[in-house]
Design goal:
- The chain is α+β, with helices and mostly antiparallel strands.
- The chain contains 12 helices and 15 strands.
- The chain has a 4-stranded antiparallel beta sheet with strand order 7-10-11-12.
- Helix 2 packs antiparallel against helix 5 and helix 5 packs antiparallel against helix 6.
- It is elongated and about 90 Å long.
- The protein starts with 8 loop residues before the first strand and ends with a helix.
Length: about 300
C-alpha cells in the first residue's frame, strides 16, 4: 500500500488546551517531521521519552486555536491523550496512514513475533464530553478522607494529567512506580475538602479506596486514545492484548543512523545543488522520493553510456 504524505493539516484535539483566560482551543495546525527532527532523534536516543515528545510537538505544532507561537509550556500543559493524538496525526502526516508493526505474544512460553497491520484511522479516539480545567467529585462514605485532626471530607477537586506531569514522573516510574503515581496524584489534586493544593503527607492519608475512586473519575472524564492491540496469536492460538507504545514506535520508525542521514543530504546536495537547510527541511518520504528519482535517472544514463 502506498502512503500519501500530506502538507500541513488541521486536526481537532479530543480534549483541548485551556488557556489562562479559560478559553478552550481544540483546532491544531501541524506540519510534518523533517530531517531536523530525525537528526534530533538520532542525537537524543538515550533521552527521556516524554521530554522528547514535548520538543518534537513544539517543533511541529504551528498553532493551537489562536495560540501561536506554541511554546514549550503550552505543549507541557496539553493533556496526555491530546499529546498521543498529535503523535498519531504527525505519524500519519509524515509517513502516511498505513502502519506495520511487530509485537511479541505476551503469553508465557510463547513470545512469538507477530506482524500486525492497521491504519491510524483504526485507532479509537474518544473525545471528552465535559471539558474543564478543574473537575469535582464526591468520594463514597467508605472512601472519605480523614485528616490528622479528625476532619472528614468527601469533596475532591482535580485536574487531568498533562505532559509536564509525564516529564516529571517518567524517570521515577522505573525506580519506584508507587512513589511516581503518588506524586502524579499530588500534582493533579486541586483540593480535598477545605485543603487546597494538598502536600504529599496529605496524599499519603488517602485510603486505597479513595485513590481508586479518584483515578476512576479521572479516567471517566478524560479523552482517550485506545492504544491496546488485541488479536489472536497464530503460534499459540490464544487471545492477547498488549499496549501499543506510539511514542517508542513512531520515534523508532524515524530513527536512522546519523551517517545515513548525512549521506542522503550529501547525495541530494551534490546532484541538485540544494542547500543543507533546504534538504533537512524535507520530510523523509519526500527526501527519499527525490533520491529514487535521481537514482533512476543516473541508471538510465549509465545504460545509454
Amino acid at each position: 500500500m502506498v502512503n500519501k504524505v500530506m502538507d500541513n493539516v488541521t486536526v481537532f484535539l479530543p480534549g483541548g488546551y485551556m488557556d489562562c483566560n479559560g478559553s478552550l482551543h481544540q483546532e491544531v495546525e501541524i506540519t510534518p517531521l523533517t530531517g531536523r527532527e530525525e537528526e534530533l532523534l538520532v542525537s537524543q536516543q538515550q533521552r527521556e521519552v516524554a521530554s522528547l515528545v514535548t520538543e518534537v510537538l513544539q517543533r511541529c505544532v504551528q498553532r493551537i486555536g489562536t495560540v501561536s507561537p506554541v511554546t514549550k509550556d503550552v505543549i507541557c500543559n496539553l493533556l496526555v491523550a491530546d499529546r498521543q493524538y498529535l503523535l498519531l496525526k504527525l505519524r500519519e502526516l509524515t509517513l502516511g496512514d498505513y502502519v506495520r508493526a511487530t509485537i511479541c505474544c505476551p503469553w508465557p512460553g510463547c513470545g512469538k513475533k507477530i506482524m500486525v497491520n492497521f491504519t491510524i484511522a483504526d485507532i479509537p479516539v474518544t473525545e471528552s464530553i465535559d471539558k474543564n480545567f478543574i473537575y469535582r467529585m464526591e468520594l463514597s462514605l467508605e472512601a472519605a478522607f480523614v485528616s490528622k485532626t479528625g476532619e472528614i471530607s468527601r469533596e475532591v477537586a482535580f485536574r487531568l494529567p498533562n505532559g509536564g506531569d509525564q516529564e516529571l514522573i517518567s524517570p521515577l516510574l522505573a525506580q519506584n512506580e508507587a512513589q511516581a503515581l503518588s506524586l502524579l496524584l499530588q500534582r493533579c489534586l486541586h483540593s480535598i475538602g477545605s485543603l487546597e493544593h494538598p502536600k504529599q503527607e496529605v496524599i499519603d492519608l488517602l485510603s486505597p479506596l479513595a485513590r481508586m475512586e479518584i483515578e476512576q473519575q479521572m479516567e471517566a472524564v478524560a479523552p482517550k486514545v485506545e492504544l491496546t492491540m488485541e488479536s489472536k496469536c497464530p503460534e499459540c492460538g490464544r487471545d492477547y492484548a498488549v499496549p501499543f507504545d506510539i511514542q517508542h514506535f513512531f520515534f523508532g520508525e524515524l530513527q536512522t543512523s546519523r551517517d545515513l542521514l548525512y549521506r542522503e543530504v550529501h547525495y541530494l546536495a551534490y546532484h541538485y545543488h540544494w542547500s543543507e537547510r533546504e534538504i533537512m527541511d524535507m520530510p523523509r518520504p519526500k527526501r527519499r522520493t527525490y533520491i529514487e528519482i535521481l537514482a533512476e535517472e543516473i541508471e538510465k544514463l549509465n545504460d545509454v553510456a
